[in-house]
Amino acid sequence: HVQLVESGGGSVQTGGSLRLSCAASGPASSTNCIGWFRQAPGKEREGLAAVWLLQSRPYYADSVKGRFTISRDSAKNTVYLQMNSLKFEDTGLYYCAAGDPANVWGQGTQVTVS
């Protein structure tokens, strides 16, 4: 079965950058699609970005388009989320998830922007 482990969260000042990593283990067929989601305090979970093995164009939510970049290293079975120009409202618990729709979730990594 698929397991996902996120890392790279932390505290950063407004305008700063962080790179999140999502290391996946398990059958490649179960990780065709991997996405990043955010759970901000008092808000619903939001899908931020997603990447597919067989689709060249990734998905970005409007809230992060132009600031966040999702990428995939298939050899390492790892998906990254490069986050630039971070804003206070980017604060939250960041999860990666596999599947379309997402059905396997990591434990989350906290991002705090102040």
What are the key terms here?
mainly beta, single chain, 54% strand, 114 residues, 0% helix, globular
Q: What's the quick description here?
A:
The protein is mainly β and 114 residues long. A hairpin with a 6-residue loop joins β4 and β5. It has strands at residues 3-7, 10-12, 18-25, 33-39, 46-52, 55-60, 68-73, 78-83, 92-98, 104-105, 109-113.
Largest sheet: 7 strands, mixed
Radius of gyration: 13 Å
Q: How far is the N terminus from the C terminus?
A: 37 Å
Quick one: how many beta strands?
11
Supply the number of helical segments.
0
Show unreliable segments: none
Helix content class: under 10%
General description of the model:
The chain is an all-beta fold and 114 residues long. The chain has strands at 3-7, 10-12, 18-25, 33-39, 46-52, 55-60, 68-73, 78-83, 92-98, 104-105, 109-113. Strands 2, 4, 5, 6, 9, 10 and 11 form a 7-stranded mixed beta sheet that branches. The chain has a 4-stranded antiparallel beta sheet with strand order 1-3-8-7, with no helix packed on it. The relative contact order is 0.32. The model has no long low-confidence stretch (mean pLDDT 93).
List the helices and strands and how they pair.
Layout: E1 3-7, E2 10-12, E3 18-25, E4 33-39, E5 46-52, E6 55-60, E7 68-73, E8 78-83, E9 92-98, E10 104-105, E11 109-113
Parallel strand pairs: 2-11
Antiparallel strand pairs: 1-3, 3-8, 4-5, 4-9, 5-6, 7-8, 9-10, 9-11
